[in-house]
Amino acid sequence: MSTIYILWLRQIKRYLRSRSRIIGSLGQPILFLVALGFGFGPIFQKAGQGNYIEFLAPGIIAMSILFTAIFSGVEMIWDRQFGFLKETLVAPVSRLNIMIGRVFGGATAAVFQGIIVLLISFIAGFRINSVLLILFSIIFMILISLLFTALGTAIASMLEDFQGFQLIMSFLVMPLFFLSGALFPLTGLPEAMKIVAAVDPLSYGVDGLRFALTGSSHFGVGIDFVVLILITFLLLVAGSFLFSRIEV
Amino acid sequence: MIKVKNLTKKFGEFTAVDDISFNVEKAEIFGFLGPNGAGKSTTIKMLTTLLHPTSGEIEVNGINPLHHQDKVRESFGIVFQDPSLDEELTAFENMNFHAVLYKVPADVRKTRIEELLNFVELWEKKDEFVKNYSGGMKRRLEIARGFLHHPKIIFLDEPTLGLDPQTRNYMWNYINDLNKKEQTTVFFTTHYMEEADRVADRIAIIDHGKIVASGTPEQLKAQTGKDNLEDAFLELTGRKIREEEASGIDRMRMHSKMWRRRR
Ligand SMILES: Nc1ncnc2c1ncn2[C@@H]1O[C@H](COP(=O)(O)OP(=O)(O)OP(=O)(O)O)[C@@H](O)[C@H]1O
Ligand SMILES: [Mg+2]
Prior knowledge:
Shape of chain B: globular
Largest interface: A-B, 29 and 33 residues
Structural class of chain A: mainly alpha
Radius of gyration of chain A: 18 Å
Order of helices and strands of chain B: EEEHEHEHHHEHEHEEHHH
Oligomer: heterodimer
Radius of gyration of chain B: 18 Å
Bound molecules: adenosine-5'-triphosphate, magnesium ion
CATH class of chain B: Alpha Beta
Number of domains of chain A: 1
Number of domains of chain B: 1
CATH topology of chain B: Rossmann fold
Strand order of the largest sheet of chain B: 5-6-7-3-8-9
Strand content of chain B: 15-25%
Largest sheet of chain B: 6 strands, mixed
Order of helices and strands of chain A: HHHHHHHHHHH
Shape of chain A: globular
Distance between the termini of chain B: 44 Å
Largest sheet of chain A: none
Strand content of chain A: under 5%
Number of helices of chain A: 11
């Protein structure tokens, strides 16, 4: 338990100390909120879909969580290159516990980032009915964070250096985001797009978050919840297997 | 304490460790010597669960590291040849992290950290981020960290690399103490022959992945008819510098590491 805690604490310290990273990673969500929110707002309204900021904000929160979480996982490549990974790998702690500590730490940072973006979206005009909904939404933030930190860690277990990172950004992270229904409603899409969105785990994260904050949902909040938990669990299992095979 | 039989490690076509066998007894101080690229670090990595052998058998503290990784990790401590600190943490945080991971009891944790940081003269700078440390200070911190918990076996991969004579002396005294008082088995590598001569009970010399000689420092000197270990070492491994092959690769690895770091 104390070992998971110390690994968690290390991730948190590293996150809080990288101020420029925290601030830097807020730029993108703000830009998306302003440019898309205000830019597409009128068209969205005309199409009879209601307030776009209200639709968009949960998607942007999910986006910033996705990016932070994946990055927290992939950050392990730094540890490998700076040599610190060795130090944890020879410690008398099961690699499953090391993996769990790391994932919890990275996920906590991602949840934190999600909450900041939620607060920013209030400035951009996003409104919710009750403050309590924030607590409800945090449940989904936690699930999204855990899922994608585990994914990032699993990926990082297979990479020796940052050369593959760009590939992962363009062919995994970006598609995960753009095809998830973060930016547009999933109803009325062409069949192929619908299928893609249905296999994208982020879709369920966005949907759950949107339900928690605004009350509207595509898949149904129960399904969102179950799918997120299942995939997180699978990724943790796969991740700890890959993690346990790391050689340095 | 350590048993190695027909151990081999290949990286692709290249054989880094070639069918070596040796034993290290309990409470022995064992020197593992060899020119650059001989396969010393690779052997240590296999003994400490960081690399899988290509073939052969190993046993550490009576446990097979291949089948019981977690268990074997409880019996040793290690100081690596390459850096292994978290530069974004302070020296104290690095020590504390290690102490918790290695289950140093909470009541002795603080005192032992203070004692060891004083020992390497870093206590005053304990709250400084490691990235602001000089190379030698980082090395001293790694040594101090390696001694935080008292394992049955301690692996030291070129521990004295880049250390000043004062710290080097302190360090060997500390190790000798540990060895006498707690019967700690010590497995170390070094390129300083006079150091190996002074502290090692027994030595094995490895070259091109093969063990070419082993015995007490006296036996090695007698075997080669030399009066110091340095000459005996040169006699056994030849005078040819290993720059071209081994260090060339190492240097390339260093460069690419530094280059990546700068990005
Ligand atoms: N991951 C790797 N991939 C390919 N070759 C490797 C790898 N690790 C080590 N080698 C090669 O294996 C050989 C033995 O390396 P090792 O690090 O064990 O040498 P060493 O005896 O510790 O040398 P030194 O005194 O320079 O530390 C070297 O030729 C090295 O280039
Ligand atoms: Mg070496």
